[in-house]
Every structure is written in C-alpha cells, then in structure tokens.
Amino acid sequence: MPERLGPPRAAPLFGRVAIIGFGLIGSSIARAARHLNLAGTLVAVDRDEAVLARVRELGLAEEATADLAAGVGDADLAIICVPVGAYGAVAEAMAPGLKPGAIVSDVGSVKASVIAQVQPHLPAGVHFVPAHPVAGTEHSGPDAGFATLFLNRWCILTPTEGADQGAVDRVRNFWSAMGANVETMTAQHHDLVLAITSHVPHLIAYNIVGTAADLETVTQSEVIKFSAGGFRDFTRIAASDPTMWRDVFLHNKEAVLEMLGRLNEDIALLARAIRWGEGDKLFDLFTRTRAIRRGIISVGQETPEPDFGRRRDGQ
Ligand SMILES: NC(=O)c1ccc[n+]([C@@H]2O[C@H](COP(=O)([O-])OP(=O)(O)OC[C@H]3O[C@@H](n4cnc5c(N)ncnc54)[C@H](O)[C@@H]3O)[C@@H](O)[C@H]2O)c1
Ligand SMILES: O=C(O)C(=O)C[C@]1(C(=O)O)C=C[C@@H](O)C=C1
C-alpha cells in the first residue's frame, strides 16, 4: 500500500477550486491538491481574517478572501469545509457567486442535514455532490492540515436521487487522486453508520474524560499521571474541536440517540454480567471484539498504535 502521494498530474483535474473553511480538512485538501496538481487555481475562503492571513503566510492558495460569493466566483468546484451547523448560512451567502455547471461539494461529518441545508439555496444548473472523508485528527486550523491525511482512508459520497453522474464521477476522481478509497451510499445510511463508528465513540470519550475530571476521590494530577494506556486514547479523542462536535450531535440527533439507546441496553447487560459473575459472557464479548480490531488492522484501516494524528510521510 503506498504511504506517499503519487506524482503530480500533467494537467489539473479542475480549473478553479474554492475551499470554504480553511481549517484542518480544508487546508489538507489544499495541500494535497497543490502537491498533486488537482486545481489550476486554489481560492481560500474563510470568515476568520487570522486564518486568511495564515493562508497567505504559508502560501496555501493563490487567493484568500472572506467574501463567500466573490470567493466561489467562476469556481468549477467549491468545497464547503466549515462546521455542519454553518452550512445553511454559507450556502445562502455563496449561491449568488456560483456559475452554471459549477460543482458544490463538502466534507461534513453528517450528510442528511447538510443536504437539507444546502440544496434549497443552490441555483439551477449547479451540481451538488455531498462527500465525507472519514479521516481526521483532534487538531484544528490551517496549521494542522497535511497532504496525506486522506491517503488510504475512506471518502463516502452521498449523491441525492437524480444527481448529475458526470459531477459525481469528477468528485470521485478528485478524492481518488488524493489517495482515498471512495464509496457511495445514501445520506441516511451514512448517518446511521457514522453514528456508531464515529459520533458515539466521540461522545463516550468526551463523557469518560469529563467523568474522570469530576471525581472527588481521584485528583486531577492522578488522572494525568496514570493516563498512560486506554484512558490516554480517550483524552486524544476528547480534545477534538468543541464547535465541530457540538454541531455533529445536533445535526445527527436521531441516529445518535438510536445508537445511544442500543449502547445503554448493552452496558446494562455488561453490568449485570459483572454483578452476577457471568465471566463467560464477558469473555465471549471480549473475544468477538478482539477479532474485529484484528480485522480492521489486517485490511489496513488502522495503524498498529493508536496515533491517528501522526503525519504518515512527514508532510
Ligand atoms: N476534524 C475532523 O477530524 C474531520 C474529519 C472529517 C470531516 N470533518 C468535517 O470537516 C468540517 C471542517 O472541520 P475541520 O476539522 O476542518 O474544522 P476547523 O475548525 O479546523 O476549520 C473550520 C474552518 O471553517 C471556518 N468557518 C467557520 N464558520 C464559517 C463560516 N460561516 N464562513 C466561513 N468560514 C467559516 C473557520 O474559521 C475555520 O477556519 C466539518 O464539517 C467537520 O464535520 C472533520
Ligand atoms: O482520528 C480522529 O481524530 C477522528 O476522530 C477522525 C474522524 C473519526 O471519527 O474517525 C472524526 C470525524 C470525522 O467525520 C471523520 C473521522
């Protein structure tokens, strides 16, 4: 499996690419697109002037602006990379700048809500192809991005019924070129799957670190001192961006609540097994879950150590 990005393309895949929201994900796309020659011109759009100043300093895009409509003007591809709670406002503000035939895509961790927020604002003749790269770290901002973030990771496309196949194929090619494995599913199915594989695990991490910090019988320094193993992994996840994750939970409410209901029932069964000394039940579950972890590693979805933030080629 390649650990590095391939050589740059002879001709860019898209002419003008606008990236709205230039944080971890937006700047990672820009770095990969620049390295691989996927865009003729890169335009950084962000509401935060400090972010735009940093983009200019690092030379991550040819243009940088806070004006959404101007930023997407003449863009062939506009990718929304802001927290999912801001999608409606962003789509509304950028819509007047979009040219006919432009493709709008995104990277949001939730898909049904994103489609509901964006689609109504898009002018006729603009194609929407929602996407979610299942790759990230606990860090935020333009300095946190790196070009290999999407290498050998999944990117899920959730095109709506009647979506323009040509536009879907172009977005697929864009993500494949960045090293991602692309899969397509409905937005509803995406939200259910990601609720259990990503959203609920984050909620558990936020919760367990919060609970540990609130314990009266364990001091704060003990929490830090003895967090070398499993708990340390939870603290990494629980350091993830509060705005992003607040929005994820508020915008994938039903699926998350459904999965939390299942989880609560299963935790009650585990508590019962511990109380009544039913070691076989615990052993059977732990054996099953160990096999799942080994399966994940053997298909190359995971590094052996739980350090997802590491840059795989030093970029
Ligand atoms: N962080 C991850 O691990 C990860 C992984 C996959 C997908 N995502 C998704 O990617 C998106 C961005 O996440 P990130 O981690 O890059 O966040 P980030 O905080 O690093 O960057 C977000 C950027 O959006 C800008 N922004 C916010 N509201 C805006 C608005 N109204 N107009 C213009 N700019 C605005 C912020 O100034 C910031 O620079 C989210 O939708 C998230 O769900 C995140
Ligand atoms: O590795 C991490 O830090 C992540 O949390 C990445 C992660 C995930 O849950 O897998 C987080 C949110 C995204 O939407 C996609 C990927």
TrEMBL record:
GO terms for molecular function: NAD+ binding; prephenate dehydrogenase (NAD+) activity; prephenate dehydrogenase (NADP+) activity. It catalyses: prephenate + NAD(+) = 3-(4-hydroxyphenyl)pyruvate + CO2 + NADH. GO terms for biological process: tyrosine biosynthetic process. Keywords: Amino-acid biosynthesis, Aromatic amino acid biosynthesis, NAD, Oxidoreductase, Tyrosine biosynthesis. InterPro entries: 6-PGluconate_DH-like_C_sf, NAD(P)-bd_dom_sf, PDH_C, PDH_N, Preph/Arog_dehydrog, Prephen_DH. Residues 15-304 form the Prephenate/arogenate dehydrogenase domain. SUPFAM superfamilies: 6-phosphogluconate dehydrogenase C-terminal domain-like (SSF48179), NAD(P)-binding Rossmann-fold domains (SSF51735). Pathway: Amino-acid biosynthesis; L-tyrosine biosynthesis; (4-hydroxyphenyl)pyruvate from prephenate (NAD(+) route): step 1/1. Pfam families: PDH_C, PDH_N. Its EC number is 1.3.1.12. Belongs to the prephenate/arogenate dehydrogenase family. This is prephenate dehydrogenase. It comes from Microvirga thermotolerans. The lineage of its organism: Bacteria, Pseudomonadati, Pseudomonadota, Alphaproteobacteria, Hyphomicrobiales.
